[in-house]
Design brief:
single chain, alpha/beta, Rossmann fold, 2 domains, 3-stranded antiparallel beta sheet, 8 helices, 9 strands, about 35% helix, globular, binds inosinic acid, purine salvage, magnesium ion binding, nucleotide-binding, cytoplasm, Hypoxanthine phosphoribosyltransferase
Length: about 220
């Protein structure tokens, strides 16, 4: 991604191009990122596909549930990393739905999972009888989602499924892999530390419209 045109292509549409990604890339990002893994158009196309699949899956269920004016489908975004994915995905799901958020911490400020999941912000409303679709940026060890899914199942929802943009599947082995399977996955992700499109390192890089691999020198 050395010239303006490839930087702009990775950044995607006109609004994001307005940020002049070529300049931003040359002005510092190039030193931090090793490569762009998924550019903005690739992410966009995949999110649209996921939205279609989700619409098909929940159409019957939403129709079946007789819940008056209470929408049975809830998109549950896990803060903070899921926010761009949730915003884009929600606009591709052609069904009545509501959105809620939870914030959990599992990593602290580093790059390795601590295995300890803490709920920092809980749901605003009850999920009893609702179809809950957890929207997450990335599955790594699966510890965070495993904990969350079990926690939510205890609250009486009609169903709990997972939509993850990225899955570092190769990290998990045997039972761990069987235990943590998302119904919807955008892309399989290599076992590298990635940033952008919501994903951060120490709070930075979430605003990148593409997903790139962070150079190990940045975090080691
Ligand atoms: P898990 O519990 O190991 O599956 O970790 C999931 C959480 O770790 C994600 O929601 C991210 O916040 C974070 N995480 C895992 N891998 C990465 C990465 O490559 N980049 C940024 N955050 C990551």
């Amino acid at each position: 991604m050395s010239d303006e045109s490839s930087a702009d292509r990775s950044a995607g549409n006109a609004e994001t191009r307005a940020a002049n990604w070529a300049e931003i890339w040359e002005g510092g990002l190039r030193a931090d990122l090793r490569e762009v893994l998924f550019d903005a158009p690739t992410i966009h196309d995949r999110v649209v596909e996921m939205g279609r699949a989700i619409t098909t899956h929940y159409t019957d269920r939403a129709n079946m549930a007789n819940m008056g004016d209470k929408s049975p489908l809830l998109l549950l975004g896990i803060l903070k990393g899921s926010y761009p994915f949730l915003a884009d995905l929600a606009r591709t799901v052609n069904l009545p739905l509501t959105v809620d958020f939870m914030a959990v911490s599992s990593y602290g400020a580093g790059t390795k999972s601590s295995g300890v999941v803490r709920i920092l912000k809980d749901l605003d409303r009850s999920i009893e009888g609702r179809h809950v679709l957890i929207v997450e940026d990335i599955i790594d060890t699966g510890l965070t989602l495993h904990y969350l899914r079990e926690n939510l199942r205890g609250r009486g929802p009609a169903s709990v499924e997972i939509a993850a943009l990225l899955d570092k599947k190769s990290v998990r082995k045997g039972k761990e892999l069987e235990d943590m399977n998302a119904r919807y996955v955008g892309f399989e992700c290599p076992n590298e530390f990635v940033v952008g499109y919501g994903l951060d390192y120490k709070g930075r890089y979430r605003n990148l419209p593409f997903i790139g691999v962070l150079r190990p020198e940045v975090y080691s």
